[in-house]
Automatic annotation (TrEMBL):
<feature type="domain" description="HTH merR-type">
    <location>
        <begin position="5"/>
        <end position="75"/>
    </location>
</feature>
<keyword id="KW-0238">DNA-binding</keyword>
<dbReference type="Pfam" id="PF06445">
    <property type="entry name" value="GyrI-like"/>
</dbReference>
<dbReference type="InterPro" id="IPR009061">
    <property type="entry name" value="DNA-bd_dom_put_sf"/>
</dbReference>
<dbReference type="InterPro" id="IPR010499">
    <property type="entry name" value="AraC_E-bd"/>
</dbReference>
<dbReference type="InterPro" id="IPR047057">
    <property type="entry name" value="MerR_fam"/>
</dbReference>
<dbReference type="Pfam" id="PF13411">
    <property type="entry name" value="MerR_1"/>
</dbReference>
<dbReference type="InterPro" id="IPR000551">
    <property type="entry name" value="MerR-type_HTH_dom"/>
</dbReference>
<dbReference type="InterPro" id="IPR011256">
    <property type="entry name" value="Reg_factor_effector_dom_sf"/>
</dbReference>
<dbReference type="InterPro" id="IPR029442">
    <property type="entry name" value="GyrI-like"/>
</dbReference>
<protein>
    <submittedName>
        <fullName>MerR family transcriptional regulator</fullName>
    </submittedName>
</protein>
């Protein structure tokens, strides 16, 4: 064993990283030990590696993904490093703004006894619609990015096929998205013409309500509609849909309009 090497236990205390974390960062290619005993597999580090360990610890403390940390630490271009840090800073600011908005929403929900919906549930007939669609597997954390990418992919396919969008885009939730569980979400854009690969979403009777406000605050709309269905003895006949009635690029989050539809059996 070379001189000046520090056992993993001592290096853990120096770096304020647990032994488990050090092993993980080694596996991820972030912080390899200076030497590994071939007989015991025990890891040893050099004192000079403490600075890299501290950088990793701080970056993980501000929720930078491991892959991005790997790229940042591998880069010698200070300008590019600065850009990477600025991009992550903006993500943190956006996340903080979203969390603050959710806290304000929670306060209003508590103040109003859990009822934020001023509009009544309406029952109506909707016509079948031909859509270009893409089904993605996503969870509560990943749904936003999956939908953004999915809509981009579909728009590209529509353009390539020479078709045109013909209505408000919407999602069909084939599964319930729960904490720690993923489900299938179908991203749909109505189209004109006989676009290859398109499909028809069936029409029928729906129970509907329009939510006004940020997408992240839409949960009460679902509660109201499902409560109405139960109270009125109706039966859901298909997965719920979220129809986006205006463009998030042209209105503020508080002005967003989203229609929540639950297909139900029969006419009312």
């Amino acid at each position: 064993m070379a001189e000046g090497l520090i056992p993993i236990g001592r290096f853990s205390r120096m770096s304020r990283l647990s032994i488990k974390a050090l092993r993980f960062y080694d596996d991820q290619g972030l912080l390899a030990p200076a030497w590994v005993d071939p007989a015991s597999g025990y890891r040893y580090y050099r004192r000079g590696q403490a600075a890299r360990a501290e950088a990793i610890r701080v970056l993980r403390a501000v929720d930078m993904p491991v892959g991005e940390i790997r790229d940042l630490l591998a880069d010698d271009d200070q300008e590019l490093i600065g850009k990477r840090l600025s991009a992550h800073r903006e993500r943190l600011r956006a996340r903080l703004a979203e969390q603050e908005r959710m806290l304000r929403f929670l306060e209003r929900l508590i103040d109003r006894g859990g009822d934020l919906m001023s509009d009544e549930v309406t029952v109506k007939m909707v016509a079948p619609v031909t859509v270009a669609s893409l089904t993605v597997r996503a969870g509560l954390v990943t749904i936003g990015e999956a939908v953004r990418q999915g809509f981009g992919t579909i728009i590209g396919s529509i353009g390539t096929a020479g078709a045109s969008p013909a209505g408000a885009p919407f999602l069909i939730y084939h599964d319930v998205l729960e904490e720690g569980a993923e489900g299938d979400v179908e991203i749909c854009i109505p189209v004109t013409g006989g676009m290859a690969g398109s499909r028809e979403v069936p029409g029928g009777t729906v129970a509907s309500i329009v939510h006004r406000g940020p997408y992240a605050e839409i949960a009460p709309a679902y509660h109201v509609v499902t409560g109405w269905i139960e109270e009125n003895g109706s039966t859901p006949s298909g997965p719920p849909r979220e129809i986006y009635l205006n463009d998030p690029q042209s209105v503020t989050p508080d002005e967003l309009l989203t229609e929540v539809q639950f297909p139900i059996e029969g006419d009312r």
